[in-house]
Amino acid sequence: MASLNTALLSARKRTATGDLRALIPLVGEPVIAWQISLAMQLGCTRIVVLCDAPSPEILELQHTVEDKGGEFHAIRTSLQLLTLLKPDEVLLMLLDGLVVDPQLAEIAVKDGETLRSSVFTLEAGSALTERYPAEFERIDATRCWAGLTTMRASHAQKLADLPPDGDTISLLLRIALQSRTETNPILLDEHEPIQWLLAADTEAVVERQETILDLAVPKSEWSGPTLAIASKLVRLSAGTGIANGPAICVITAVILAILSVGLVSYGNASIGLGVAALGAAVGSFGEISRDTKVTLFGAADHLNIFGYFNAVRDVFAIASLAFALTVQPVVLAALPIFVVGLLWLAAGNSTLRVAPFWNDRALHLAALAICTVYDVLSEGLVLLGLLALAQSTWRHFFAIDE
């Protein structure tokens, strides 16, 4: 199968209140944005959306897809689709308004680096098929369509022989079955609402959104209070969207870290370290937003910048602390390096309950900012370093005893 695959989505069906299903917001993003994210994660480089007319939201998604190097086409008829497809492609189809767990979809759809051709099914009589019988079409006595199909694009050419005003996705499903495309069951855990969600009405989506966020937002122990507060704030704000949150937080945190070095170097040690603590807190918010976004939308390589951000954050923290110690003997300027290194070591040698304390750089910097007010910064650093060393050695000997 060719590496260039096409995803066919739809933005036509409406709720009882007249809203387009595809544009109902879920965690701040329209449902169709979730579908596009899934399709691109599965290797589809061409996104085709069936719609009556491209709305501003659809056009915005077009820019998003094209910025990622993909193709985007908004079409009205099945004949327009045929002009875009090549026979050696795989065509992926999703039911209008269906949100699918990326991990579950990847396991079902991918065969190594390619997409397997398959009509995916749900058991007749399951909660979804009973609630929405007209959407999850009955295939036979025991199975219904799951709202997800991958088929050879060459089979789609049979659309040319069918009425152009028919439901394109429904017709393609029939063609796939008539072409003897294999069928595979989707086994859902009905206690996991993020797995298979149909945005049939706004109220149902809002209700499920709360459960989805409870599952997606990382929980943090209160041993790291800044991280715990950041987790709560992400949970409260995620409903309005976190699309650009992680990137904005990184930029803001780096700016604050640079500003903190400047403030400390000009003699404003307590203020500078306070700004550094604020930057670390913003970075923590961004990191938790990143983890939430990856859970919701699937892996995204560009979000791995946080692996580097934490190191950069600590480099700036070391610089700020070193400048703050310039009134002391020069040898003390190396003290922050040892202390930060011990904090990393302690975090790696702690239990899950205690590790957040050693990772909470905003808390550490805020405490050290207070130390500068009372002119005991070096003593504060030594105490923090000794505590980190004690944690590391205790954990080491505890592991040996076990």
Write the layout of secondary structure elements.
Blueprint: E1 5-10, E2 25-26, E3 29-30, H1 31-41, E4 44-50, H2 56-67, E5 71-75, H3 78-84, E6 90-94, E7 98-100, H4 102-109, E8 110-111, E9 114-115, E10 118-123, H5 127-131, E11 143-152, H6 153-156, H7 168-178, E12 183-185, E13 196-198, H8 202-216, H9 225-237, H10 245-265, H11 269-297, H12 305-324, H13 335-348, H14 355-359, H15 361-373, H16 377-401
Parallel strand pairs: 1-4, 1-6, 4-5, 10-12
Antiparallel strand pairs: 2-3, 6-11, 7-13, 8-9, 10-11
Helix pairs in contact: 9-11, 10-11, 10-12, 11-12, 11-15, 12-13, 13-16, 15-16
Description:
- By secondary structure, the chain is of the alpha/beta class.
- The protein has 2 domains: 5-206, Spore Coat Polysaccharide Biosynthesis Protein SpsA, Chain A; 219-401, CDP-alcohol phosphotransferase transmembrane (TM) domain (Four Helix Bundle (Hemerythrin (Met), subunit A)).
- The protein is 53% helix and 14% strand.
- The chain has helices at 31-41, 56-67, 78-84, 102-109, 127-131, 153-156, 168-178, 202-216, 225-237, 245-265, 269-297, 305-324, 335-348, 355-359, 361-373, 377-401; strands at 5-10, 25-26, 29-30, 44-50, 71-75, 90-94, 98-100, 110-111, 114-115, 118-123, 143-152, 183-185, 196-198.
- It has a 7-stranded mixed beta sheet with strand order 5-4-1-6-11-10-12, with helices on both faces. A two-stranded antiparallel ribbon has the order 2-3. Strands 7-13 form a two-stranded antiparallel sheet.
- α10 packs antiparallel against α11 (269-297) and α12 runs antiparallel to α13 (335-348).
- The chain crosses the membrane at residues 242-263, 269-288, 315-345, 365-390.
- Keywords: Membrane, Transmembrane, Transmembrane helix.
